[in-house]
Amino acid sequence: MYTYFQFTGGGDFVSWIAWFVLMAVFFMFYPRMMIGQIMWKIEKSAVAIEKMAKESKKIVVSKITNKPNKELKEKVDRFYEFFSTGPVDLDPNGIIKKWDYVVREQKDRFTRFVNDAAPKLDKENKANVEMGFAAGITLYDVAKIVRHFVELAKKTKNLQIAMIIQMQLPMIERISKSLYVGTKALSAGQPIGDALGPLVAADLIGNVTVKEIEEDIVVAKTKIKGRQVFVMKSKGPGGRLGYPGRAVQKLISKNKIVKIITIDAAAKLEGEKTGSVAEGIGVAMGGIGVERSYIEDVAVKKGIPIDSVIVKMSQEEAIMPMRKAIKDAVPKVKESIDRFISSANKTGSIIIVGVGNTSGVGNSKKSTEETIKWVNNHEKELLAKQKGKKSDAEFLDI
Question: Which domains does the chain have, with CATH numbers?
Answer without folding.
Answer: 28-187 (no CATH), 193-387 (3.40.50)
